[in-house]
Amino acid sequence: MSLVDSSKLLNWYKSLWSRTVDLVGDFLGSELFIIDGDSLLLECFSNEKLDFSPGFQLLHATYIVEKFLQKLRQRKCVFEIVFFDCNAQLCVPAGTSDDNNYRYLLAREAILQHLVTISQEKEHGLGVHVFESYHSDSFKEYLLDSGAFAFMCHEGVMDEINEIDEVSDSDGDGDDDDSSDEDYQEDNRDDDFTNETKSGKIHFRASSSVIGLRIMIRWFITHGYNIALVNNLEFRDTKIMAMVIQGSVKAQDTSSVQEVLQANISTYSDDSSMMTASELLKMAIHEDPNLTQSQCLLVVSLAVMSKDGSNSLTNTSGFTTAILHLVILQHVKLEDRVIPAFRVLNTQFFDAFLKTSKSVLTSAGWKDAMKRHRLPCDLPDFSDGRMFFQVQTMLDILGVYRVISPTTLLPFNKLASLVDRLCGTKLMIEELDDATEEITSSARSGVNKPGKKLAPEIGGESPKFVKVLPFHNAVFDEHLTPVHLEIEASVDEEIWSSRKFMDLNHWHSSRPLDQKKAILTPRNWWQQKRDQLYMAEMRHYAESLLGSVGMSQTETIVVERSSSSHKTAPVVQEKQPTRSKNKHNARGPTVREQAAAAIQKAASERDHKRKNQWTINLQKFSKVDDTMVRFTRVEDYLSGLSKDDRRIMEPEILTHLLDTLVQAICDKNASEQTEKVLLATHVWSVLARLMKVRQGINADISKYVGKVCQRLELPLVQLETQIEHPLSCKVSNAILKAPKIMTGTDPVGFQLLYGGPFMDRSIDSTPDPRTPDFNPDRWQREVLDQIDQKKSAFIVAPTSAGKTFISFYAMRQILKDDDDGVLVYAAPTKALVNQIAAEVMARFSKSYPEKATSKSVWAIHTRDHRINNPLTCQILITVPHILQIMLLAPANAKTWTPRLKRIIFDEIHCIGQADDGIVWEQLLLLSPCPIIALSATVGNPDEFNSWLQRAQSTNGHDLKMIQHHHRYSDLRKYVYHGPRTFTFEGFSKLDGLSHLGLDDADWMELMHPVLSLADRTRRIPDDFSLEPRDCFTLWRAMTDLQTSDFPVHPSLNPFDRFSGIIIQKKHIIEWQRPLKDLLDTWMKDRKSPFEALLHRLSQPDKTTFATTTTDATGVNKSENPPPSSSSGLFSSTLPLVYSLYAQGALPALFFNYDRSQCEDICHHLLRELQDAETKWKATSSKWKSDMDKWNEWRKQQAKKKSVKTTKVGKGKKGDEDEPMSRADQMRESASVETSQWALFDPERPVEMFSLADSKKLRPSEFAVYAEQLRRREMPKWLIDALERGIGVHHAGMNRKYRQICEILFRKGFLRVVIATGTLALGINMPCKTVVFSGDSVFLTALNFRQAAGRAGRRGFDILGNVVFQQIPTAKVQRLISSRLPDLNGHFPITTSLVLRLFILLHGSGQSASAIKSINSILSQPRICLGGPEMKQTVLHYLRFSIEYLRRNYLLDDTGAPLNFAGCISHLYYTESSSFAFHALLISGYFDGLCKHIGDEKKRPKILHTLMLVMSHLFARVPLRKSVLESWRTAEKRSSSVVILPPLPEEACKILHAHNSQVLDIYSGYVSTFIDQHVKGYDRSLPFSSVKCGGDKSASELGLSQVHNHTAPKIMSLFYALSGKNDSWETVSDLCESIRSDVWLEASVVPYVPVASESHPLNAYLLDFFKHGNIKQLETANKIRRGDIWFVLNDFSMVLATITTTLENFLNPKGNDVDMDMLNIGGRGDSKEFETDAMFVDEEAAEMGAEPTQTDRQERVVPAVSGKGIPRRAGKGRVAESWEDDLSEDVKEAISKETGSNHATGRPNLRLVETGEGLDQSRRSSLVLVYKAFSELKNEFDDKFRAMWA
User: Fold this and answer.
1) Cis peptide before 870 (omega within 30 of 0)
2) Mind telling me which GO cellular component terms the entry cites (predicted)?
3) What domains does the chain contain, in order, with CATH numbers?
């Protein structure tokens, strides 16, 4: 291959984007993926702990492979392994000499055959396949059959390429006081090495593996597969974080690299004659058929070596060594095989033996022989180099008779005799005589020859950690009783004596916060302004929800007090009438009867008035000649009625609609079948609605409906007469002459084909007084029962099934019970929080006692904003992080937490998320009250329910799982194939009836759900559903294709099953079940007609008219589109929107899981509309005419205005005493004819080039929204897009913009919104169509179901459309047919949580709720969702987490938190990084670094060093190795910092010391756990459970003289085979090498790798701090554009947390610090807050609310002065700057330390008073540390804020 071609390939690979995802949760789910076997071996063979030369530890290598597979299986991955013969060489690690290649190839073949063997055992569930190459037809067929989703392989970059010793950072040491700022600023030079010297070497090394692997990656990407890199996997707790590569390449582009492929194909070439080997193999097996594969390979290899005739390699000693070494391997215990390496070794014979064995093992003769004879496979333990050399040395020194033992003699002779017979050698040993026995016995007793040192040096030590510090806590001691540890009190004294400079007072105030006197942290003026704006916004937002199902204005209820101290309002509870003592009252009606009569009379009058109004409107409608237009207007009129009006008028209006349709049938006299069906479908839809009417059906309506059914030959509908009143208006006689449009159509067939969406969907529904608005189904009543009984419930029901009312019913119960109970609603997204809060505001109001001035019905609390007091409301809507902070806040433990009555967890499946899932899991374990858990997407509900029941039962709450499997409205799926050419000339007005579904849409292909089951290896998912039409077409196709072996039972015939009835949804569900069972039977049997069934269903269905269409250019619209690309996605969006518009299928949500691409799609769509409009305006005569008329009208208006002004001016002189009256003015105004040109605006989008529905929003209203967005400096194109009815919605968009987008979509003005998954989780944005626009790694089965559920929402649409745009057909099928992934939990007992529990316990004064929380989480036997029962593991881990906290001065011996405990606990979301930060903080490193922060010359360097350290701690993003490779080989580098420079030396030393301490502590954890709970050694391979080694000890085999060392206790024996013992360098080493029956994950250990312990890190934060250029972050640092805001905001939040907690540490005032932390956010959030506050007065007025207006249940609650201006506690003035916000003594201290007057105004947080008891010098240093972090935060935030400029 030429260098040009290789460069092209490497450049292509470098251009690919990657993202790190949760492999199972975010990407694969339960999908099958393929692992490239050679990539797997390459990763395992590259393990630094593996001894392959000279030791050749084959069993250790096998263990590493199986350990990897076991980790995948534990995390519920579904995978198979494939090996390609052409890639065999790719498993050899880079840098391996050619002389050692054979070792890896031999190991490859041995492990491969071992994996193939275990794959044949069903219990392992592993598939292993071998192919010649990935180009082979057999492999392509395998791909099709397997339905694999992704490919996992290595990218071929070795670790040694990535060492960055040469990368230096001259500014790394913060103590270099002599460096100047100028040196710092100018030091942007490149690193001290040349690219040329490195470049050639890298290309040379890459030629064998890098190129070959990347060619393979290119091939798989070409064929539509995403790539997961095996060399970048991180096993984090129960998750697998994987780097996934996305890209696209055309198939023809691979031709230029085919020659590379050929150059890299490796075939097995043998030096020896394989013909001879095959013959010897046959002879060996014939001689002894009971051989194992290792024995057979040994014998044949020695025989081949003997036949070759090389005297130097066929000596008897070598043969004897080889045989005896294998005998020992098969008989000795594994723990006796731990042998250190010898210093001097003769490897000549061993090398030759391995080479020959490799040739034999890879020969075709061997494979054929094993297929025929199936010898037991023990190849993973075929050879052990260390044992071989041990035996070789023993034989050289002692001789064979002193080494052989009676135990090994027989098996040795068995193999030796076989070699003798094959080769003519004499290896057999005669029977041992007595003398030999004596010699051997003495040898075993340790008698050695003088002068020979047989015992090698033994490596490894016992763990350093032996004893723990004293600890006693009554609450925790009860749980820790089973953990027996030795206490060393003297160690405790020594440790604390060495840290006397640290203050040992508790980190917070010694007095618990008195909740009655507490106030939240005073909020400054802009925070108050912002909150006032939020209140006004919330009212406005709630208005957009009105009219939704369950959200009408009349349903807003008033919940009265049930307390005896307040009277109950009549609307809730009526007083019983007292019996009158006056006898004369009995003669006439009672007062009650009179009141009832009056009410009835008023109701009758209202009904009469409504009917009169209908009569008047009907006369207007009757004047419309076009029946279709009339039908549409009456429909709109009906939909606009209130609930009460609808109840009275709906029957008559529906009858009129029915009559109008009959007239349309007569008028049109349709001849086309499609038109007849459309009309008949709409007639049936009206009939279906009449069948659901429960009040108002009279005899006239019933009779007319019967006539319609008979005349049109529709299924007969019989309505029961409910009232006797006649119709207000008579129907026409059109029915008498209407044609019989459905002649010949069976009523059953009509209902199944066309009536499915209109079927009655109630399932066991009955009236229930608890839900007066609807009749709940049985499952809904069960939920209500659980709530009434104050029990817990886990509810699994699909989207649109009717879960919404559950939460509000529970809220109503809490409000009715009393004024103190609290319900918390936890939602995963802030968008959902805002929506629920708005609904609560619209639904509930409540009167509280006058004394309860702070009470409110509801409150919102997120990091973004807070409305109302979260501690005094009754319904708190929040996110999980905030709820966790509140539950663990000591101040809440005695006051707020005991008031909790219920917690609702919406979208509970978020527990499976990699990032925040652990918070959900901890909350479920900590919940002190009954819960309601809601979800539509749980793959393992039974398992999750079992775990949840245990968690709830611990706290004494019963939990019941309630499942419902059926959506209310069906979803119909389509694949969109865009046209090759498309000319857009505007949207035409829609005439006629709307279509149901998209069957007639252009370029749309209907996908029958059964087509998604093309992969027969998959089972039908549990939630796989078919709509009635699908069932009917499936039954019909199966009936046509049935055979005698595969019949369709007559009971499935729908014409018999449903004859004479009106079919309901429940009937379809019952019919669907046996249909799916039969389908499943056909799928499983290869002989069934299943393939023919798929072919039949894929053909256009003439009955449903889902035919392919051809566009005007003759292009078939059903042809497959070109390969997906962003350009194809953009160009096909407008044709798709046009197609949806033409079918009346808008509004639509377009889901794309790339934030930046969402914006790009919107921008492209906007430009296309604008360009088309511009072109039309330039050529349209109508537009020219309109403009001329408008200009003329403007001139006339100007003249009139001029004349009027003149008249008024003259009239002032003579008519001043006769002004025009108000009535005259109104008459004059009414007489002025409004011209159409008064509403004409040429700047507004032309209607035919806009998707906005102008009827739903006045231009003046939109102008208000537009102005609000302009104030926030939103890009003009986004506002223009909104004006044309197009919006974008993702988490990175401005909060105000997102809110406006949601409001306008609900109003119906916006009709297309392009969004990420932010709208998939429960947001009420009902739409007709959901489009999945483009593929993504995040488009998984889970996200598909969540997003698709937005279509066809209950109460809005009877059918939802789901469209796939630019997504491969195979992916579409997989999404529809995939089962939901199982929920896997996390190990929730983190070190941070342990610390927070102690803070809770101590800070609350051992409160009952705190104790309950601790007992709740520690009493769980199965602490981890999806994990085994591991209570003892949890307790040991807990005890050693306490030990870690003790040794790091965060807890005292009673568990009281110390020193910086508060700071570290509030950084809980960074977990391990927070403890590394603490190590630097408590060591005084930051004190030394920041001591000169006041020196302006040194300040930049200090901040740079501080930023470097913080980047190492809190921005640990590994660089993709290929990115690093390309950066190092680049001829010209950008000025960006790509590789994070090393830590400063002092910081590195401190963290190394910290990590060493952590290593000692957690190795002690493992050691004590093994002592108490583990017996024996782990001798079995972890995945296959194959037992390795024998049962004989070393002494029994004659090896005691060289085995005078002990086996490792902690380390796995398999790891120890490579010469290691119980000693480790890093925590990662400990976790990797620990024995498999002990649990320890690196992710739960509080340590951060430093320097050589970790891979190179991305310097994106340091780079941004350097130049503030986000474009460089995207191009150089490879941070995705859509992710930049989030990663920067996350770090800004870290800085905010640190500065706030340092302030609180220095100034403990007794305030509730935990509650203060709720308001901490990143600069990205606060920038929006400040902007909101700037315009609060204008925008509150625009939304019709006064910003100062407050309300008893909706109020902002920060502490404020009497005039509403925030003031500092204890001060008499307003803080106007940060200096004012500091107390005088602190300002003086900072000035004294820094020598500055603080005129720069950088710190923005307050230091109120000196921390009590803190050493003065230490305090002074911490003040400077605080100042440095404040300055760093401000400088970083300034650059971050500049992103908006």
Assistant:
1) no
2) cytoplasm
3) 3-158+209-264 (3.40.50), 274-444 (no CATH), 464-498+1387-1458+1541-1599+1616-1655 (no CATH), 520-552+778-968 (3.40.50.300), 607-750 (no CATH), 969-987+994-1003+1109-1180+1249-1378 (3.40.50.300), 1681-1844 (no CATH)
